[in-house]
Amino acid sequence: MVNTSDPVTSLALMTLFAVVMGTLLLVAVAFFRRWQQIRYARHAHALHRQYRPVLAKVLSGARGPCAIEGLRELSLPNLELLLDPLFSRRKLRERQLVFLQALCSELGLIALWQRRTANGHARAGDAPSALKPPDSSDRAAIRHLLRAKSIRNLGKLRHRPSWPLLVTALDDRHRDIQWVALRSLGAIRAPESFPALRERLHAAVREGRHSPPLPGLQAAMVSFDLSCAHELLPLLRQSDSQVRRHAMEILRNMVYRKATGQHRLTLTKQLLTPPMVNLLVERLAVDPSAEIRSRAAEVIVFLGDERAVSVLQHLLLDRQWYVRMRAARALAQLHPTSEPIHLALRQCLLDPHWRVRETAINTLIALGQEGKNQLFRHFLTSENEVTRHQIVEVIEGTGLMSALVEEYSSGARGVDALMVEHLASDIAPLGLSGVLRTLNPEARKRFLDRFLPYAEAKMRFMKETQTELETHARLQPALQFPPQLAA
Amino acid sequence: MNHIRVLIADGVTVFNLVVLSYFFVGDGIYTVLMLLSLRATWVHVRRMSYHALDALRHSPLTPAVTIIIPAWNEQDVIVSSVRSALQTDYPDVQVIVVDDGSTDLTLDRLVDHFGLVEMDGTRHHGIPTAPVRAIYINPAIPKLRVVSKVRGGKPDALNAGINLCRSPYFGNLDADCLLETDALLRLMDPIVNSGGKTVVSGGIVRILNGCEARNGQVVRVGLPRTWLERFQVVEYLRSFLLGRTGWHLLGGTLIVSGAFAVFHRATVIEAGGFSHDTVTEDMDIIVQLHQWAAEHNRSIRMSFTSDPVCWTECPSTLAMLGKQRRRWQLGLCQTLWKHAGIMFHKKNGVVGWLSFPFHAYVEGLGAAVEFLGYAVIPVGIFLGLIHPGLLLVFFLLGVVYGGFLSVGAVLLEELTYRRYPRWRDLLTLLLVAVLENAGYRQLVLYYRFQGLVKFLEGSSHWEKVAHVGATVEE
């Protein structure tokens, strides 16, 4: 049926044969790979089962010489395989890190990882003779994966003496190695390495260099302690707005990292030097770039400086909506707050941009009772329906409605009580009914006992007003002058 | 009579050449994509062994993301997918469910399960959408917000979600999908690492049928029981691991799965939001973004990563499969037609010169070429223009080559993620990869051809695929 002497048919047959063979090869590779992986997994499992108790002892600090001897018997690849899960695990406790670092040092692993890090960063122009002559283990060491893992491990252990090696690894030709080195430098946080990162950041922004990667540099620098921030001063003084913007972004994030670990952060002279503070207040807060102004606002709020308040008040009136929004958001961190700040935030409730209004509402709530009082007073007196609805949205969304209703049920007076009565009878019946459904029966009864008389009185008042209006409308034609007299 | 015969013969010869070119262009490019993907996925998996997602998790530079779940009549699956989205391991995530005028119990189930209450307050206008009826919240679950709106279609629901979203990025998640806990973190990784230049990031979609899920998470991965569903498992592997990875490497991403992807909010709004013109909003938005970027001289990147996993339920009956494939083909044709200006445009690079023409010819018109091929070739044999033996060899070659590509996809899965742990699963997958091209492929081709006909008829009807909840849920 098939004419094999025809050249087209024979070509097609040959292709068919090649494709069939190719498919069979792929199937064989799939099976081989599965078999290899199972063997590897069994080996790793056996190793972990055997040495888990020893490792657990080592990590708890209760190790004996026998434990170490047992681990010394293992070959280096097996040792790395055994310890690898510890390095890829999400988080090790500080105490465990100390013991793990001691163990790795004793077993010679740190020296091995350092050697791999140092040997691997052959730059494009380096002659092979410039490198250490590789022995059999080094040949393996220069492999990309091993090098990357070694750099990761040094970072995970926060091995501070390794920082110069990691800085050198930033010039590696592999982008991945640069990334891992940046992460490790960010984890070690050796202040000595910060200027090197700063210089590379400058080059990356100014000259558009892609290695080391800019996002990686930023992420690494943000991890450093705030005491290194003064090193950013030369960048913040640069004429290039892009350089200033990146430096400002790093500073802002360093400050926020610090702030999350503390109850109330104040940037003292030890944390932020006076020249830095002056630069922030006098130049960066009025920078031509809105991005820089907005980030400056978020740092200035932590200064605890009198000038900070006036600068922030000024930024609340900025021409760019997101500068106003960030300034309003930053004010949530301000302690202690004062009347002018509350009033300035109240002004923001009339801002033309809804994001600014929403941020101002959230900030007033975050500023405590005085902030809330200002917000409620604005709600009760304002005729701006859009802002009033937005306030209701935030009050319901943040769960403040439940707190207000509970307070009202327990007999609270003042502006909070007025607020609940307004919300319940006027603008937020849905949110209130939702809260009442979740309230315990006793509190609900107390709420209704107090609220119903108010609601009835209001209904009566509304009915009377309505009747009055209707009467007025009926009498209106009779009260009007005849047209000829009016003319 | 002779004249007609010569005319038919010429026509059949030309058509045969078109079929041959379709075969060589299609399979040739897929082979190149397979080779590229093999290397890239291998490198990616090795990279993930030392690339710490932990750094991203704790970095203050990691931006906030809102997951938008558009839902229309998804009462059986909505709760588990929302739970899955809420469990996402990400430092700053919000979930907005948009009930797009469901007529079943979708909204009631959400309200009951999450203890939601309707809220008062304002509505913020952005992209025009059908009216919003109500917004539901539970202050105890501040990450969740449910919007009920008048039916306007999936793109409309996504636009309504974007209007409520405050974060710089948003992800869309289909209501029948379950997210792996670290999927969002993995999806955001290329965005953060590109310094924000990447505006779209897509991940892989895997078949949920046959797996076991609890509390919105897949706890045991397995293959489905029916062959129809198994064929789709291999089809998805081929589409994502080979196709999407390969196009991403070439810089020609034209489709990001609508089941789960992350977008830069401001860019999508600037480009006009999700459009109602097509029935495949996922492809449409990607092509729209390419076109918008070219018109506005903006440099944007799109990323595909093969390890953020979103599990989705695939059709388990022929009727449902037909509906799904007809819609996909219709949407593909609508999108290609709508943005035809991209093709061979000097500003569009790989997308305009390679990816778009490939999709137009192989994926769009290919349905007609291949389908009509089955009809025209017998005419050629009847007229003595094609030797039956040669035809048989070419048919076998087509089937075997398809098998080769599918086996390549299974191998790629085996070399990298190995989600199907049992030997039996591997054997089944390989068998399915070989068998898929004799029968199933032709069936899908038939549905694709129907989709193409619907496009030519000018239809824009969205055929709903019912999800029945294929997994075991507590």
Can you walk through the features of this model?
- The complex is a heterodimer of chains A (487) and B (474).
- Chain A has a domain at 401-457.
- Chain A is built from 26 helices and no strands.
- Chain A has helices at 7-60, 65-72, 76-88, 94-106, 109-120, 136-141, 144-156, 163-169, 175-188, 194-206, 214-222, 233-236, 241-260, 274-282, 290-300, 306-315, 321-330, 339-348, 354-366, 369-381, 385-397, 400-409, 415-427, 429-438, 441-479, 483-486.
- Chain B has 474 residues and is an alpha/beta fold.
- Chain B has one domain (1-51, 176-474).
- In chain B, 53% of the residues lie in helices and 15% in strands.
- Chain B has 14 helices and twelve strands.
- In chain B, the strands form two sheets. A ten-stranded mixed β-sheet of chain B has the order 3-4-5-2-1-6-11-8-12-7, with helices on both faces.
- The mean pLDDT of chain B is 87.
- Classes of the chains: A mainly alpha (487), B alpha/beta (474).
- Chains A and B meet through helix 1, helix 7, helix 9, helix 11 and helix 13 of A and strand 3, helix 12 and helix 13 of B.
Keywords:
heterodimer, A: 487 residues, 26 helices, B: 474 residues, alpha/beta, two-stranded antiparallel ribbon, 14 helices
Silhouette of chain A: extended
- Provide the β-strand percentage band of chain A: under 5%
* Beginning-to-end CA distance, first to last residue of chain B: 72 Å
Approximately what portion of the residues of chain B adopt beta-strand conformation? Answer: 15-25%
The low-pLDDT segments of chain B are none
State the gist of this model.
Chain A has 487 residues and is mostly helical.
Task: Outline the secondary-structure elements.
The complex is a heterodimer of chains A (487) and B (474).
Chain A: H1 7-60, H2 65-72, H3 76-88, H4 94-106, H5 109-120, H6 136-141, H7 144-156, H8 163-169, H9 175-188, H10 194-206, H11 214-222, H12 233-236, H13 241-260, H14 274-282, H15 290-300, H16 306-315, H17 321-330, H18 339-348, H19 354-366, H20 369-381, H21 385-397, H22 400-409, H23 415-427, H24 429-438, H25 441-479, H26 483-486
Helix pairs in contact in A: 1-2, 5-7, 5-8, 7-9, 8-9, 9-11, 10-11, 11-13, 13-15, 15-16, 15-17, 17-19, 18-19, 19-20, 19-21, 20-23, 22-23, 22-25, 23-24
Chain B: H1 2-48, H2 53-58, E1 65-71, H3 78-86, E2 93-100, H4 106-114, E3 117-119, E4 132-137, E5 144-149, H5 154-164, E6 169-173, E7 177-179, H6 183-193, E8 198-207, E9 212-214, E10 217-220, H7 227-250, E11 260-264, H8 265-270, H9 281-295, E12 301-312, H10 318-338, H11 349-382, H12 388-415, H13 423-435, H14 440-457
Parallel strand pairs in B: 1-2, 1-6, 2-5, 8-12
Antiparallel strand pairs in B: 3-4, 4-5, 6-11, 7-12, 8-11, 9-10
